[in-house]
Task: inverse folding
């Protein structure tokens, strides 16, 4: 199912109620609602299982979706981003007709609801949909963006979820947002275009941005939405940025050639990311942490790991090497190399908060159920929200579906 919600109060409440009687009683269960703390919760019945999501902001529209299959069980998405799954879950009552009630459990307050605090939901609901099949992660993402295809032509980030599979990719000269929107040609300047060399969109002449005579070097690069270039230098222990059309770079985090573990210093930083609000995230590898620098500040706040305390508990990191973020900047996925795992944290987390393991077993192995030296990671929102992981010691690149227990080799 899929719906938009805007809460006007905090606390619990029923979003969706199933029952065989019009008063909400009889055979009944509450598949979607809020805990008393305000967390969005999706439930499955017999055996009881649930997926707990984040606390939703008040007076803000949020997209919620759940999918079900016997193999993966119940899966919860918030704003198109995978939150979690129950794993294998049987359907206890296939084919049973039910009455679906929105925003209230009526007289069914005693129905199976697990951690959902049943009662009246205060707020707005919109675009509620129920599907007779399991939607893919890409389809859920499209619903969360309002980009479902209705005109028979797949433009931008649309999908054919509501067109019965009749949407087509765009021909040369048509408008586009992403290369996947075009028919075997790249998307250049929002137009499906034949590149200068076959389908290649690259210019064959490079432009020097920083010369080797400067002190600025890098381990990894990142370009933000304003075309500002960021570089992280693990040897000199700082992060620099080069604004568009600027001649000189400037230090934005850490102190040049100065190692430390306080809020203004770094120790062998390995990766950098800028979110949609201009906040900067730095993977501070040898301090076993992730530092978040609020837009315009030089003092970092630890949001994952424990400073100078490397380890493999859920609240720790151990020489992490790369990270990636979902399209809404809600979750951060970290390639935790020495713990042989990928672990997820909220971007508003704090030091000492437990993360959630989403890939790997914690034991180095070259099977498709484990990782071996995860070093770099990318979040592929255009391909079923999969993680693409560089498996350094395994000499491979693997694609790991979120919610899955094994990877696909590449």
Result:
């Amino acid at each position: 199912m899929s719906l938009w919600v805007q809460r006007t109060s905090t606390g619990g409440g029923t979003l969706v109620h199933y029952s065989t009687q019009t008063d909400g009683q009889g055979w009944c269960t509450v598949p979607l609602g809020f805990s008393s703390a305000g967390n969005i919760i999706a439930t499955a019945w017999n055996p009881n299982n649930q997926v707990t999501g984040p606390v939703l902001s008040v007076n803000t529209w949020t997209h919620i979706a759940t999918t079900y299959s016997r193999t993966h069980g119940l899966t919860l998405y918030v704003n198109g981003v995978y939150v979690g799954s129950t794993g294998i879950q049987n359907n206890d009552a296939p084919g049973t007709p039910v009455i679906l009630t929105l925003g209230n459990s009526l007289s069914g307050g005693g129905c199976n609801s697990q951690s959902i605090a049943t009662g009246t939901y205060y707020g707005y609901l919109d675009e509620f949909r129920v599907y007779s099949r399991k939607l893919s992660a890409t389809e859920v993402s499209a619903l969360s963006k309002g980009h479902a295809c209705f005109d028979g032509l797949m433009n931008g980030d649309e999908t054919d979820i509501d067109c019965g599979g009749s949407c087509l990719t765009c021909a040369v000269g048509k408008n586009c947002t992403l290369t996947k929107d075009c028919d075997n040609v790249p998307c250049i300047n929002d137009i499906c275009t034949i590149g200068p060399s076959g389908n290649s969109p690259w210019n064959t002449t490079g432009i020097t941005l920083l010369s080797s005579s400067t002190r600025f070097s890098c381990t990894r690069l990142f370009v933000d939405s304003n075309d500002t270039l960021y570089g992280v230098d693990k040897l000199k222990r700082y992060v620099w940025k080069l604004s568009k059309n600027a001649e000189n770079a400037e230090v934005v985090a850490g102190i040049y050639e100065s190692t430390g573990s306080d809020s203004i210093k770094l120790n062998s930083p390995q990766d950098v990311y800028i979110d949609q609000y201009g906040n900067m995230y730095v993977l501070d590898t040898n301090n076993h942490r992730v530092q978040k620098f609020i837009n315009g500040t030089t003092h970092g706040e630890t949001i994952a790991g424990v400073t100078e305390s490397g380890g493999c508990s859920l609240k720790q990191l151990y020489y992490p090497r790369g990270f990636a973020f979902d399209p809404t900047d809600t979750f951060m996925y970290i390639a935790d190399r020495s713990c042989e795992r990928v672990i997820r944290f909220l971007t508003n987390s704090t030091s000492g908060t437990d993360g959630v393991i989403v890939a790997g077993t914690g034991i180095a192995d070259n099977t498709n159920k484990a990782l071996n030296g995860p070093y770099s990671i990318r979040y592929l929102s255009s391909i079923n929200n999969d993680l693409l992981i560089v498996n350094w010691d395994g000499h491979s690149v693997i694609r790991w579906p979120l919610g899955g227990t094994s990877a696909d080799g590449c």
